[in-house]
Amino acid sequence: MILNERPPWEVHSSKVELKMSHSQIIKSESASSGTMIDALTPPARPLFQKLTTFIDAECRPAEEEFEEKLDGFKIIPEVLLALQRRAKELGIWNLFMTHLHNITVHDYGLMSEQMGTSFLAAYATNCAAPDTGNMEVLHDFGTALQKERFLGPLMDGGMRSAFLMTEPDVASSDARNVCTEFKKETRSGVEGYVVSGRKWWSTGAEDPRCEVFVVMGRVVENSVMSKHHTMLVVPSKSPGVTIVRSLTVFGYDDAPFGHAEVSLDDVWVSKEDSLLGEEGAGFKIAQSRLGPGRIHHCMRAIGLARRCFDVMVERMLTRKVFGKEMARHGMSQEKIADCKSDLDCARAITLLCADKIDRIGAKAARGDISMIKYAVPDFVLRIVDKAMQVHGGMGMCEDTMLPRAYSYVRTLRIADGPDEVHKMVVAREECKAALKRMGIAVGSKL
Amino acid sequence: MILNERPPWEVHSSKVELKMSHSQIIKSESASSGTMIDALTPPARPLFQKLTTFIDAECRPAEEEFEEKLDGFKIIPEVLLALQRRAKELGIWNLFMTHLHNITVHDYGLMSEQMGTSFLAAYATNCAAPDTGNMEVLHDFGTALQKERFLGPLMDGGMRSAFLMTEPDVASSDARNVCTEFKKETRSGVEGYVVSGRKWWSTGAEDPRCEVFVVMGRVVENSVMSKHHTMLVVPSKSPGVTIVRSLTVFGYDDAPFGHAEVSLDDVWVSKEDSLLGEEGAGFKIAQSRLGPGRIHHCMRAIGLARRCFDVMVERMLTRKVFGKEMARHGMSQEKIADCKSDLDCARAITLLCADKIDRIGAKAARGDISMIKYAVPDFVLRIVDKAMQVHGGMGMCEDTMLPRAYSYVRTLRIADGPDEVHKMVVAREECKAALKRMGIAVGSKL
Amino acid sequence: MILNERPPWEVHSSKVELKMSHSQIIKSESASSGTMIDALTPPARPLFQKLTTFIDAECRPAEEEFEEKLDGFKIIPEVLLALQRRAKELGIWNLFMTHLHNITVHDYGLMSEQMGTSFLAAYATNCAAPDTGNMEVLHDFGTALQKERFLGPLMDGGMRSAFLMTEPDVASSDARNVCTEFKKETRSGVEGYVVSGRKWWSTGAEDPRCEVFVVMGRVVENSVMSKHHTMLVVPSKSPGVTIVRSLTVFGYDDAPFGHAEVSLDDVWVSKEDSLLGEEGAGFKIAQSRLGPGRIHHCMRAIGLARRCFDVMVERMLTRKVFGKEMARHGMSQEKIADCKSDLDCARAITLLCADKIDRIGAKAARGDISMIKYAVPDFVLRIVDKAMQVHGGMGMCEDTMLPRAYSYVRTLRIADGPDEVHKMVVAREECKAALKRMGIAVGSKL
Amino acid sequence: MILNERPPWEVHSSKVELKMSHSQIIKSESASSGTMIDALTPPARPLFQKLTTFIDAECRPAEEEFEEKLDGFKIIPEVLLALQRRAKELGIWNLFMTHLHNITVHDYGLMSEQMGTSFLAAYATNCAAPDTGNMEVLHDFGTALQKERFLGPLMDGGMRSAFLMTEPDVASSDARNVCTEFKKETRSGVEGYVVSGRKWWSTGAEDPRCEVFVVMGRVVENSVMSKHHTMLVVPSKSPGVTIVRSLTVFGYDDAPFGHAEVSLDDVWVSKEDSLLGEEGAGFKIAQSRLGPGRIHHCMRAIGLARRCFDVMVERMLTRKVFGKEMARHGMSQEKIADCKSDLDCARAITLLCADKIDRIGAKAARGDISMIKYAVPDFVLRIVDKAMQVHGGMGMCEDTMLPRAYSYVRTLRIADGPDEVHKMVVAREECKAALKRMGIAVGSKL
User: Which one of A406, B121, B161, C149 is at 20 to 30 Å from A213 when CA atoms are compared?
Assistant: First the structure.
């Protein structure tokens, strides 16, 4: 890979004029009738159109071949690699790095919705988790060396990465429980850490192109709590790293990307190469990954829900039971109506949240981000479940993407913090607002 | 009442520039944190601020006195009449006639939300149903004479009206079933109709100021179906009109406005005075009442939900059970989080629908209008129900407005067409869209 | 009133043979198809048949006249008094005192279900709350004097009583919060208490025949917690007792029985006349009221749900919309099916709980009693709500008993402890069982 | 295999005395606290105890080895074969053939619940679908020859079978759509049929021991509708039979039993060997499979739910989040309480239905059977879903049986008729009952 003269992550564009974004949002139509182009800021429009055409004309049609050519975690089917080359050529590449394209989080939200309509689209455009979050982290906190070694190749698409956060032995929904150890140890005069721990749900760790892990742990020597949780960049082929097994979700192994359990046994890394930000910055970095990322996840889930809704209605219009098309039966009509409002609700609150991030930043929009995190998967699961039901036996098996869609969205209620934690966050935000309104000091009550 | 030189309904302003509206919508904050002023078009901003101040400082505080002074249907407590004078003086009067104020449906939606936070606000500002719909109908379809006789006084606030649609003897959810008879009869050389039938749920008919009914029925002589259903303007004191009884909703009679059962026994009216539009225009006129009107209803319900949500959270923060504030209990936190997402969903889809009406008109937005009609009351009822539960016995009785709020919102699932009918409409719209996408002629399937 | 030679509460029959009960339960049919007689123990069968005939032929037909003759809290319409005389004559009187009739809690549960199908039946048969609970308390804890003065007349039906537990100023869902004061004071050499406090939701306190209150409070002088909460019998006409107001539930005042707010201002009572059990026995006595009482409440609610379900289906079969009976529409069919399973579930778990009380006692069945307390009203509300929806406007007003039914059942989610408290109880019971299974000492975890 | 002197299916015992069954049912405790032995008829008690011990001590512990030894559809792991030998030895074999053991459907329901707590138990005891239904069909409708050739070996456990009903090309929820063709053709003077069609969801067809298919189709020559749908017994190795593929459910292939798509291309069978009952008896035979079978499915699902509930509570008691055990958090407590009532409701209505079948037969209990068919999986799914949520990532993967449980129970909402069809059945039954009550002839309305 040859880097551009200026590294790609520095191609900052002039700041997008926010007013443009707002002026257009409302024109984005309801989910099932597609997205109107003028909901986007001007810089986003040609990108969106190219992306949509690419997904409709190239990604969805390629899904079947991709499935056929799969061979566990050994290879990435050529059809996906070809799609990646094509997307790069079209300039619809790394779109999640919105500042590079002079677009807004809201713009990218609408693009994520489109990506959600094909299982291949996010991979094809280098916009798939966990690389997106890892690239953001490297961009914001990485040293020049880390950027050159990892961020460049990741942005180029030839390398992949994993994020090693969750641990099997502790309730990771409370991130303070994370207990992988970073023990300070100088080897050959070089300062460094010995990493020991076990991680799981390390998505992408088994991808044959995966070269780097971003690992959360704690520096054992630091007695001050604020210096504890720390993030390290660890090359995935380091001695002591073992892929213990591939986890399945429902029955799917999600090859060739997968969700690995990874053992880290006395893995030594140098401080200079590995430390992200500083010791104790673990939470801050982890948080930074989560704001826009949740918009992406939700909007992709919504795109997927739209696809499921569309196939459900199409099936109802073409399948006859008890003498008439399913669509003429009242129970079917109620399903359609319920799905439609679920879909529109999910979409509306997520886009509003995206816009809020554009305007006031992810930190201030924290409550809304937590809210969509629990509300959207719930809406989407209801839609996917109805679509499965309408498809009968076909809706349970590999002849539709429905059970896979269900399985994927179901994990969203757990990944990046379970519903329950996000409900606590929202409740706290609302209580704070109420106390303020009531003129009561927050400290005395919460 | 002295009319302005130009009648009030002709003060058309220059067309509001739609782009302004869109550019601002997104800035309206989530319900519980109030509405940001810059979500409104510029002409709406000062109105909105005056309205909000008026409601907060004058309407809600007046509720208690209003309740105390109530004496069935005999009088309108002076406190409300004073509020009306005040609102007129402030220029926050007849705001629902958006074209008079150069504001959008979306702007008025945000104002309706504010009105929903006090039971008196819509009455105080001459924006209460059914007068709003009746004024619109008179404005759009009335003759000059009808406008002078009824529209002027209604807009001035000294007169009230009722809409006589639903009938106890037929399933009025299918409006074609309406069977009140309009029999042609010329008296003293004047063409006219003899009206016979029974109506109920005629809201406002018992208000002592009610002077006029808008009545749906069918012209018995017209053999052609398209000439059947017709709308007449009938003075409420006409011979043959009897208020049979006041209906209660749950246990409330909703005095002094009420919901009457009305008997029309051989009520003769002249064609010139009474006919709205033309014979057979009944459905068309009925439809025209319903578009923006549903935005108003939904947004008021949402404002009410916000009030209920606020009192729920405040109660949780100040009431201790089992050793700590309710707000510290997990079951309470889950209730807050669920209410918050319900509220934001309801609000987001309704505002999007309002904007759609602004952009493409109520007819084209029909599907969305039906969707909010069934989706919003469901969200709001869940919120009110939780607020009642949190208040214990107090939440069931007159010490809170909660049971009344519940009762009011529950009727919204039935009034103007039950949920089931609106779900059928949405299902049909979605099926049409799907057939189009599939390249199948609609006629062959629906 | 002339007492029998042996006071009525002493007519203990030979112990019912429990095996009989079990052998029959299963034959009780699903709710909507009526109750088979052989689900009852032999002694219960003739009573059940007389009761059912009485309710069907006399109570439900009398409802209309009762409503018409109502005049607030001033009188009890004669038609109810006549029903009472008739029920006493038939021997279907005080059936809730199961030991007097040699029947089981399960038998009486099935009878309560029948009573639920008419608003008058429980009153007509002297089986209405709160008298039932008060009579039980007097029976189990009263002195001979208290029994003669109050229990006899209550059982005879000429006197009524109220239970003063809940207080407006504290979260009474945690009964330890109750703070009405019992201050020891000897007057004229007679030991006694001065009662001061405010109670509300004192059902029946306004009935013109109400003579006695059972009052929960705390003896202020007792420093030991276990001597604190105490129950007193207080004559309702004592100096210092004031009915402050009638509370409404949704808009209903539930006259002529009502729910009163009662002020107790320095009400002196003698210890001998008033103390129930001993000082500090308040909780124990309060608990004793709640076991079988919850079966009664749930089964009556289920009987009411069956009535609502029946009228819903009948309406669907006779009302046409969009060209065919509602019952032929798919959305209606789904409603019927959902109601049917809700009804059968509610009924099955309540009858199983009743039988459990028969076999192992209310204390051991505590978890099940809490479970039906939150599960059954939820099922029943869903049924009543659907029945309202199907009736359109008629379902909201006094033309059906539906809104009243809804309002009544909604209070069951709060009265005698809100859902949330009972869910905590069930969770604790299940956790204890799990700890035992796991071999972990309960103390270490809960 | 050597048959007993009297074939095993003829060992009819003296008719079980029904009263015994009823007398005991009620004593079966709520699900989570286990089943009391005296809820069973006396003949069932020793069987139940042996079965429970066998499942607890041998089946569940064997699950891990079974999983490890699996090798697709090639072999049945020896551990299962050993369990089968053991069960046969213990006499807990073919228990579903209740008449052989002198037990009731209700007894067997309680046994099925136990079987549901281990994935291996039904197979180990020769009580797994679809063999159970097929054996019943062969028993009730088979010729002596068919019984000897197939029923004997199936009952002995050495042979397995499949039921070929559903077809990929038609909406099989309306069984009249089934279109596999049986063409009459005499070969070598022997009357027979040529079978042509495609079936799927043929559970067990890939089991290496599967020798026989029971196939639904229509005799093409029969012009009379009542002679159309017919059932044939077809040896699975017949020329023209092809296993097209294994279907997955969510991602599971359910090896070694599986769900096959089967192609039947001109498969000739003799009439004497193959015809079950007579031509046109297809529906009758299909129906006969479904009554008690649905009890078995539901009770096994309930047993599974109990297992999931138990692991959920145990996890809550041992896992700490935010400073205390999950079980101490209010949101957890609400989950426990909701699961508990869901579980008890599911169990209660299914056992009542089982008893109804014992008393009045499956045909008369049709409505109840349809009701449990849609109500029970819904309850169970809610429980399993909560258990997954509480387990976080572990709840999604193979470290718990939870996602597999979810996937299995989800199919129950579709298999043997989707929810929607069963809701129609229940609605029809309730409407019939209402019409009868109203004195209206059914014919005129339904």
Answer: A406
